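The data are quoted verbatim here:
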Amino acid sequence: MFANSSFRSSSVSLCKLSELKLEVTIDAIQVSTSLESPVPCTRAALPGFLSVGVVVNTRPSKVYEDIERAIWLKLFIGEKTQDVAAEFSLSVEAIENVLTKHPELKLLRKRIWYFADFTHHQNQILNYVQANSNVTRNEIKLAMAASYMWLYKHEKEWLYQNIPTEIPRNKRYVR
């Protein structure tokens, strides 16, 4: 249907169009370097900037300094990234990018979650032991399996101090 000449001219125009995009990208880089301002960059334009040799600050999209500070505060007190993302109408990835900017938060958040888990399992065991006065270790283990195993793995010393003492071996199986 189409002649070879029209096919060649369309392919040439496509090449010119891509060259034009590259020229516009280079012009934007030259303007931004002359103004000493950050280069406005989208994910699609990032490879073009990197191929020219420009270092691009890839901060989280839509997260500005005042919002980042509010996000940091929420992350600092141990809120989940999904909840923070929903509150600020951002993606979880953007919140996690803010989290990776502050590596000290990672250890702090682990400690907060560990303490929350410890308190939860501790209360479960203590409430069960108070409700059942003559309970054995095995009965606690069977009734509160998740809490018992978490405390056994992470806080064995606390667990053994707060559950009944073990029954001596010669009195365990009295017939």
